[in-house]
Amino acid sequence: MSLSQRAIPASPVLAVRPMRHKAWHAGLWGTDYAWALAFAIPYTAIFALFVAYPIGYGLWLGSDPKLYADLFADPRYLETVVNTLLYVGIGVNVKMALAFLLSGFFMRKRWWIKALLVVFILPWATPALPAYISIHWFLNGQWGMLNNVLYMLFGIDGPVYLNSHWMGLACNIGAYIWKNLPFWTIIMLAGRMAVPQELYEAAEVDGASGLGRFWNVTFPLMANLYFVCTLLDTVFALGDFNATFFVSGGGPAMSTEVLATLGIRYAFTVALPRLGVAAVMSALPLLIPLVILLMRKLRMSEGQL
Fold this sequence. Notes:
Layout: H1 12-28, H2 31-61, H3 65-73, H4 75-105, H5 111-125, H6 128-138, H7 145-154, H8 165-193, H9 197-205, H10 210-238, H11 242-248, H12 259-269, H13 273-281, H14 284-304
């Protein structure tokens, strides 16, 4: 057989390259990749339009240092910062402490406690707008239900709750706690239910009292969840404006404003959107460390699993 008739093996490069090209082309437009692109592209577009663009535009609006000089020169801003710190500090800590205690109460296996839990969840399930407006009218000094009940039962005239700075701020904090307490109670209840019952039984065999079981079993195992929930709720509370806006309206004379409502008032009522963005962004020095701490805590908790 001559050399021309002999079968010459194809070059490996020439043989593999078309196969790789066909495999890549088929994989790219195959079923898996097509479905992945079909889901990824809309989410990417929504993220860019409704998350990335508003955040970037807001940062650009509040990038002028002169805005912060005007903001700090406003005496209402300093009062608002104090209100925000009280609103967040008192509201979050009181709410988380109550949620932790109430979760222990709802752990009891009685039918009427389970029925009470259903009723307890209703404030959180109620939409925020009608709930806070109902609280506003409930606390009305002249026509409110609370003062009318006080007058009918005890013959006394209640105070005008929303016409005082400190009382109005207390009403805002109380409304915020009442609205969100059921949610965090359920979270704490789920955490308690995850604690192995064998640990409680072992502690009881060792002679530990109820307080001892709480201090040596419940508290150490729930401490991480409690801390993470507190950080997360602090982030939520910094951006919350519903309670202040709909209960006291920021009054009297804007004395109960928080940073979220002050930014809305600057942007829409006074028609100074840049100043409103600056008021909201002034909370970033407190918000960013909280988010970083929360992410680190979650990463540490994930590493322990």
